[in-house]
Amino acid sequence: MLAPYIAAGNISVKAMWHSAKRVYEETPEIEFHRSIDTFLKQLIWRDFAYHQLIHYPDIIQIPLRKQFADFPWQGTDEQLVKWKRGQTGYPLVDAGMRELWETGMMHNRVRMVTASFLVKHLLIPWGEGYGWFKNTLLDFDTANNAMGWQWITGCGIDCAPYFRVFNPFLQSEKFDPDGEYIRKWVPELSSLQAPYIHRPWEAPITVLEEAGIQIGETYPSPIVDHATARKRALQAYQEVKGK
Question: 13-26 vs 30-55: helix axis angle to the nearest 10?
């Protein structure tokens, strides 16, 4: 939750760096050291974004890897709206997009998953996501946002493997095994227990009825099939790679 204050210039990044280093030196626990190292790497990553923006000011609009200018986008306006409103039928994606709309914030892991879903599952141009995050994030930062979207799309610097497609329900099962995050932001699924809350369309009818859920009625069916969308995305990336 420091991010909005960093973006607004209320907190000195240099002061944060030196404070974290001081705590590192004063605390003997190895696990704590690893946590601080991760935090410091994020501050360096932020600087890396500014480095890119300074040298490539067009990254807010134009892919650094030029062959991506002809990427075969196929998504629709209707799908874009469902993504923005958290109505994709993928609980983790929907939870993240609803949290963003309600609070102006979203956890970094979920930012990656929702962004990957937009450009790789739906094949909607990353510029649409950049614009939506610009309009909704309290911690919006031009350099970070541009680098993040180009990284997740695979058209920027240091985007290896550029063809990686995040699996929304596996990410959910790994980082939110009990479904607490989903339960908070997608209340229509709050009565559904794990593991079904991660992929409600696979739950037995009796389980759904007991939870008061009707897929396609009280909660949307998946907007795309994951396996099909992944295959389509990889084909599109292979086409771009050929250029």
Answer: 160
- Residue 223 phi, psi (nearest 5): -65, -30
Measure the CA–CA gap between 166 and 139, rounded to whole angstroms.
Answer: 23
Question: Considering the domain boundaries, does residue 60 fall inside one?
Answer: no
Q: What is the DSSP string of 154-214?
A: T-STT-SSTT----HHHHHHHH-TT-HHHHHH-GGGTTPPTTGGGSGGGS-HHHHHHTT--
Q: Is the pLDDT of residue 242 over 90?
A: no
Q: For residue 43, give its domain range.
A: 3-55
Q: Domain with 172 in it: what CATH number?
A: 1.10.579.10
Q: How many CB atoms lie within 10 A of CB 240?
A: 19
Same domain, yes or no, for 98 and 175? yes
Q: What's the CA gap between 204 and 192, in Å, rounded?
A: 11
Residues 171, 204, single domain; the answer is yes
The domain total for the chain is 2
- Given CA atoms 69, 74, 77, 80 in this order, what sign does their dihedral have? negative
CA angle centred on 125, ends 123 and 131, rounded to 5°: 135
Rounded Cα distance between 43 and 41, Å, is: 5
Entry field: residues in the chain: 243
Q: How does pLDDT run across 118-162, given as a tens digit for each residue?
A: 999 999 999 999 999 999 999 999 999 999 999 999 999 877 676
Burial of 186 (0-12, 13-18, 19+ CB in 10 A): buried
Mean per-residue pLDDT over the chain, rounded: 94
